[in-house]
Amino acid sequence: MDSLPAKPGFTVGDYAIDILVQGFPGKSVCHGGLGWSTIALLRGQSGTAAGRIVLFDTGSFSQRRLLVDGLATHGLTCADVTDVVLSHAHWDHSVNWIMFPQARVWIGKAEMEWAVNEPIGPNPLPELYVRELHRSPQLITLEEGQECAPGIRAYLAPGHTPGHVIYVLEGPDRDLIFTGDSAKNRIELITGEADMTYDPAVTKATVDRIWGFWTRRPGSIVLPGHDMPMVLDNGIPRFIGEREAAISCWFGDTLDQTTLIQLLPASQG
User: Fold this and answer.
1) pLDDT tens digits, 62-83
2) How far is CA 156 from the centre of its chain?
3) Is 3 contained in some domain?
4) How far is the CA of 48 from the CAs of 51, 133, 207, 214, in angstroms?
């Protein structure tokens, strides 16, 4: 198949797509949720999509500066974003919707109804932000197959949460499938199993549905919630680009004495 760009950045239909924050397929061992989720920017270039500035998910508090800086590299500010499309309501994907006051904020209707009625407790929901979104005039809830921006449709994909949706951007030659956490990474896509699901059978059915979208057109791209974008190469998921992940730590005696720890397998470090 044709070679793909080393750094994630591609065109599907009327949209140019760039990965503002690269998702990471891992968990913190001792310090709670890691939550390094994927944030993608779609810029409408032509047709009815011209002028639309769309974000797939918005990340967590720790990603706010990355969001602002990533938009700035394209000459954009938060006020330029026209549409925020949320895969689900968990904190590491949804909390920053509030940074985009001019945007329509899209989320599955079933997801919003579930999230706003969940009791406060040890769950991944940012309860106060969910309540604020529920009463915000920016909110638009989505039904199965509904379009949220030209060429982009939402499809129910439960398992991680009851009302989780995936988004499918249909182009003339290939599609883009943004899976959020319905399939967080390559392993979940391959196995049909997930480490966070309320029902393994429901998750398996959702992953099968994702594969149905992925395989219907050669060259289509899957963008998971915590991993790199992928294409199928002879039926095998292959990454577009290379992973980057590291932590800089103060283990010495001065602030300028740091240790860089690469969070990658030796073959990718």
Assistant:
1) 999 999 999 999 999 999 999 9
2) 15
3) no
4) 8, 27, 31, 24
